[in-house]
Specification:
The chain has helices at residues 31-42, 54-62, 77-88, 110-119, 134-137, 183-191, 196-201, 205-210, 230-240; strands at residues 6-11, 25-26, 29-30, 46-51, 66-69, 96-100, 124-130, 144-149, 154-161, 173-182, 215-219. It is 32% helix and 24% strand. It has 249 residues and is α/β, with parallel strands linked by helices.
């Protein structure tokens, strides 16, 4: 089928805050294998890990997964998934692509179906969750999505920022770093140079908005733990070994 989606998981060993994190043990498995398992559990289509190094490829293959090696010097995860896509599917069978970050081992598998569902005919889609923890409102590590909500659960992204925005009464939304793309939109995106706002906020998705691309978003009730630090790794391990409940909203 021409519209069969593919889930691509970019992974590389070079992380400044948590070196070799794709191989970090979480509940007895390398983190990249845990992420691959969440994608497989979603049962939304083909799942391929886009690995920058052979060490990552080896553990994915050992777990029974599909992997493709990519240039370790690529500048971003988006570039990595696009190179992987061109390698595994030069004929263009997959027209909807999910970019599932390789550091989300606690991602609820149903969220993958949700980001594909809200994509529709938009260029891109992503997920948000309403912020309920006051500490997150002013935390620059929590990316906020400024939304034009069309229903209680779906809307169009106007901006992404590390600042507390928008001002005034009303909900704030925590951005969840999973994306779906139309194939043509992904090709357009990776061909664009980094944009001024992207460089200023250090948020790659602003490149798409500055170029006039549309990003739809669905509001969901759970925020997966992104593993960037040893503390995040410990929390993810506790969640996946059943010693604590996942974060929710």
């Amino acid at each position: 089928m021409a519209d069969q989606p593919v889930i691509l998981i970019p992974a590389r060993l070079a992380s400044t805050r948590l070196p070799n994190k794709p191989l970090a043990d979480i509940a007895g498995l390398p983190m990249i294998v845990q992420v691959w398992q969440r994608a497989m559990e979603a049962d939304c289509g083909r799942v391929v890990v886009a690995a920058a190094e052979a060490e990552i490829a080896d553990v994915v293959i050992a777990a029974g997964g599909e992997v493709v090696l990519t240039d370790p010097d690529l500048p971003s995860g988006s570039d990595r998934i696009y190179q992987a896509l061109e390698k595994i599917d030069p004929a263009g069978k997959h027209q909807r692509i999910v970019n599932m970050q390789g550091d989300l081992p606690t991602l609820e598998p149903g969220l993958i179906a949700r980001v594909l569902d809200v994509l529709g005919t938009h260029d891109m889609s992503t997920l948000i969750a309403e912020i309920v923890d006051d500490a997150e409102r002013d935390d620059p590590n929590v990316v906020k999505a400024v939304m034009a909500m069309q229903t209680a659960q779906e809307g169009r992204a106007l901006y992404f920022t590390r600042a507390t925005a928008p001002t005034g009464p009303g909900p704030l939304y925590h951005h969840i770093g999973i994306y779906a793309y139309q194939r043509a939109a992904l090709a357009q995106f990776v061909a664009l140079p980094p944009s001024p706002l992207e460089q200023r906020e250090r948020l790659e998705q602003l490149r798409a908005l500055e170029a006039g691309m549309g990003i739809a978003a669905a509001c969901v009730g759970t925020v997966p733990v992104g593993v960037d630090t040893p503390q995040d790794l410990e929390l993810a391990n506790r969640i996946l070994t059943g010693h604590t409940a996942p974060e929710g909203n």
